[in-house]
Amino acid sequence: MSAPIRTHNLSVRYGREVTLHYPDLNLEAGAALAITGPSGSGKTTLLHVLAGLLRPASGEVAYGNLNLGAVPEAAREAFRRRHMGYVFQDFHLMPGLSALENVELGLRVAGAEQPRARARAALIRLDLGHRLNHRPVHLSTGERQRVAVARAVAHGPGLLLVDEPTAHLDRNRARAALELLLGAAADLDATLIVVTHDPVVAEALPARLDLGAPAPVSRALVST
Length: 224
Ligand SMILES: Nc1ncnc2c1ncn2[C@@H]1O[C@H](COP(=O)(O)OP(=O)(O)OP(=O)(O)O)[C@@H](O)[C@H]1O
Known about the structure:
Elements: E1 5-14, E2 18-21, E3 26-27, E4 32-36, H1 43-50, E5 58-63, E6 66-67, H2 73-83, E7 84-87, H3 99-109, H4 115-125, H5 141-153, E8 159-163, H6 171-188, E9 191-195, H7 199-204, E10 207-210
Parallel strand pairs: 4-9, 4-10, 7-8, 8-9
Antiparallel strand pairs: 1-2, 1-3, 1-5, 5-6
Helix pairs in contact: 3-4, 3-5, 4-5, 5-6
This protein binds adenosine-5'-triphosphate.
């Protein structure tokens, strides 16, 4: 289920010293947005707020008719598990589990049926059929990333949140990672939000929110 995303008046506070204020977002269902800005401008923090992993000090995040901050934590978590996929910058794979088990675990947590078969299918779709039983330590960085993407998309989320997808990759692999994400989002008809320092990634997405600009730089689908 992909839904429009709207934020209003968002701010986040870390202790007394750091307060981050965000421009309002207004994304149509199925949009693709790059969040850019200098180090420390609050990109990852915004992704965490959009995922419901971090409570803002003020403001609202709404997915369609659901106001994420207004529902109890259990409902927020259930929504996150069913409808969101998150690819962390350093992947957050379980080191003791194989590629297949990592993706399967994500599906079990999401409450999906036939988690093993679906995990296998997701990995095969991402050309990892020959790495199903390898643990992360025995995979290349690009392969680990594909496992992380497979885990994020296998349950069919309507929203895919991705943090620095090309940070660890050379130019060719970065392009492949970008195509992988765009393809996965298109397959799912999902909204894609990507935090990135990489101009190639930012240019490939139709909408951009630049947190470092004096006033937010808006392209299609982002309103302030
Ligand atoms: N858990 C935390 N406790 C205190 N301050 C934090 C915490 N997480 C982030 N910050 C601060 O909030 C600000 C924004 O951090 P954030 O990681 O969101 O920025 P970013 O734009 O993603 O940076 P980078 O590009 O370096 O990853 C920074 O000043 C950072 O030091």
